Amino acid sequence: MNTSFKILFTLKFCLFFQLGYAQNPIIKDFFTADPAPIVYNDVVYLYTSHDTASTTSKNYEMKDWLVFSSTDMVNWEYQGAPVSPKTFSWATGDAYAAHCTERDGKFYFYVSTFHKEDENSKGGAAIGVAVSDSPTGPFVDAIGKALVVNEMTTDNKHGWDDIDPAVFIDDDGQAYIYWGNGSLKWAKLKDNMIEMDGPINYLNPENFIEGPWVYKRKDLYYLLYASKGEKAEQIDYAIATSPEGPWEHKGVIMESVPNSFTVHPGVVTYKGKDYFFYHNGVLPTGGSYRRSICIDYMYYNEDGTIQKVIQTEAGVEAVD
Ligand code: FUB
């Protein structure tokens, strides 16, 4: 073997070794952000935003939402782009963070996008709901109008404060929707999942920016969210003994991520392990508007507090 061949062989071997073992980011064929994983019938469905901005763009370009599925947390199968702002006749503009949840065999896909100027709104960010009989669609607008329009929330003056919906269904069947940028809003949902059941409530969790994610583990409720870090967003969390709070702030669980100003949490327990989903900007040509979803393990202490999530290139191992 001559010297240059040996060098080439070694480089190729190193690349193979790296690609073979570096799971993060988990999706390499698209730029994906705002992970929203659910487990249904022993399959993990991962709903994502989809960044399509050019390398020079200084803003988001997000035309649709994507779905991937996995049964081992390592191999992710692309299931299509079943929802876009075009699904909603009232919507225009970008496809910001979304969240899908199942109830009684139907899948409700809550989106943040932007509203046309019409009789229902003067524009700005709005939340809609699409519905399907399958986790991978096809989805149709479940209401025919937005669930939340900018005019319904009055605590913040900026037009994009009604983004990032996250839905949680408690053990007693009561569903809640949480959302917001600049402040956290929440409301009860009726059993039909497409109407609010009561007023909109406002909260200001410590350092809250956006991206709430709510779930229950044992007897505790967890609220994770993107918070103000020194230079970029990080993830804070709070706990409560009720989904209506009061929430006790417990601190930062994940530091800012490389090469992206935003970060966004998603959590599932699958086959006995706890997983933390987030995005960063580390794929080649990536950045704040060309992000990529990663997964790392999550660990709880005996008292229910969450240990700091360590961001790794290796990611997680396949589970049976
Ligand atoms: O992806 C667009 C916006 O960036 C999301 O709605 C926020 O959570 C942030 O990740």
UniProtKB/TrEMBL annotation:
<dbReference type="Pfam" id="PF04616">
    <property type="entry name" value="Glyco_hydro_43"/>
</dbReference>
<dbReference type="InterPro" id="IPR052176">
    <property type="entry name" value="Glycosyl_Hydrlase_43_Enz"/>
</dbReference>
<keyword id="KW-0858">Xylan degradation</keyword>
<comment type="similarity">
    <text>Belongs to the glycosyl hydrolase 43 family.</text>
</comment>
<keyword id="KW-0326">Glycosidase</keyword>
<protein>
    <submittedName>
        <fullName>Glycoside hydrolase family 43 protein</fullName>
    </submittedName>
</protein>
<feature type="signal peptide">
    <location>
        <begin position="1"/>
        <end position="22"/>
    </location>
</feature>
<keyword id="KW-0624">Polysaccharide degradation</keyword>
<dbReference type="InterPro" id="IPR006710">
    <property type="entry name" value="Glyco_hydro_43"/>
</dbReference>
<keyword id="KW-0378">Hydrolase</keyword>
<dbReference type="GO" id="GO:0016787">
    <property type="term" value="F:hydrolase activity"/>
</dbReference>
<keyword id="KW-0119">Carbohydrate metabolism</keyword>
<keyword id="KW-0732">Signal</keyword>
<dbReference type="InterPro" id="IPR023296">
    <property type="entry name" value="Glyco_hydro_beta-prop_sf"/>
</dbReference>
